[in-house]
Structures are given as structure tokens and as C-alpha cells.
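WARN  no MSA supplied for this record, continuing single-sequence
INFO  ligand: 5-O-phosphono-beta-D-ribofuranosylamine
INFO  echoing inputs
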Amino acid sequence: MPIARRSSPILRVAVLASGRGSNLQALIDAQRAGTLPVEIVLVASDKAQAPALRRAEDAGIATLALDPKSYASRAAFDADLFARVAGHEPALIVLAGFMRILDPTALAPWVGRIVNIHPSLLPKYRGLHTHRRALEAGDATHGTSVHFVDAELDGGPLLAQAEIPVLAGDTPDLLAERLLVQEHRLLVACVAEIAAGRVALVDSRVRRDGVPLGAPLRLRADGSLA
Ligand code: GRF
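INFO  complex generated
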């Protein structure tokens, strides 16, 4: 289903996050600065103690914490989570460090309206430990990707990427720290393009201004995508 706005011109966004929430914070900050015309209507988490929830509370955003252990199955948890998220009527769901594989049935109605940020140049290094794996492979560059989500782990059509050089002496932590700055910029830029109605997933292909992308968009130094 394509992203639809309600009567309000402001895109309603729900964010799912399991941890620190720095990507969420980047969205909040951009929204407050007036550079991201969205309304963050809900922040939901599978961890009641997630700092992301505290960031949301501090920003006056509704929060939801559900414990997967109180559900009989992944499918049951995801069905309830997505039903509750739907109750807030988001037009877009952003997975910002949401560390769970999603049940395909719960996800299906949201395909085209849900994006994820992942700390690698996908399709390289799906899953965990992306920084260590890039270093071990001797990669000259590393990066981050935003993609529309489908049932495949860190799969789904790529929207945009940002690259950084791997430097001599880099450790996984140093690389992660430098990349995080670009993650924040990339995520804000991608959500802004979706909010502006420029980027959408149509017939399983990411289109910008109606034209299918031949390759993921790239983050430029000025924060725009090209
Ligand atoms: C980020 O590196 C994101 O790409 C990955 O998990 C991390 C979340 O960081 N999926 P934060 O919670 O947004 O600070």
C-alpha cells in the first residue's frame, strides 16, 4: 500500500526502537528544528528500559513497551505490537535500532510503509557485528543503508546509503561511532524525502519522483540525497 496522508499534510510517523535511540533523537531534533515536517505519534519498544523510550517521553511523544516474553510466540507479539501501532494511525513506521526479526504476517500490511536503518552497505553484512565484519574483510569503505522492509532480515529494496572511509587504526567501536553520525543524517534525509512524497515503494521498486532507482540514493555533504 503506498504511503497515504490523512487530512493533515504532516506525515504521521511511528518509531520502533530497542535501545539507545540516537537515531530516534536525530528525527526528534530535525522535527523540532523545522527541517523534518513529520509528527512522531508513537515510539514503541520491546524493552521497557530502552533509553529510546525515555527520549520519547522527554519529547512529549506517546510510548509503548511490550515484553515479548509475555507472548506465546513471535507471531503473537508482532500481531499485538502492530495492532497497537496501527491504533496511532501512522503513515510510516521507522525501525531505528529495533533488534527483532518481524513476523511476515504482521509485517505484510505495512510493506511499502516501513523502513529500517542498518549499519552496513547492504547487501553486505546483514545481521549483527557489521563494523567488525567490515574490518575483518579489509574493506576500504563502510557505510549505512536505509531500506524498505520486507520479510527478509535486513533485506528489502534499498532507498539510500551513506559511505565513510575505513581508516588505519579503526576498531569496530571507532567505526561505529563515526558511522553513527552519518546514520543520523541519512535517516533524517530519507524520512524527509518520504514525507515530501518524493520517494515511495511502488510495485516492489523504490521510485523517486516516479522514476525507479537504478541504484540506492547517496547522501551528499549538504545532507541531501542524489
Ligand atoms: C544503529 O546502528 C542502527 O543502524 C542499528 O542499531 C543501531 C541503533 O542505534 N540498526 P540507536 O539506538 O539509534 O542509537
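The first helix runs from residue 22 to 33.
INFO  checksum written, moving to next record
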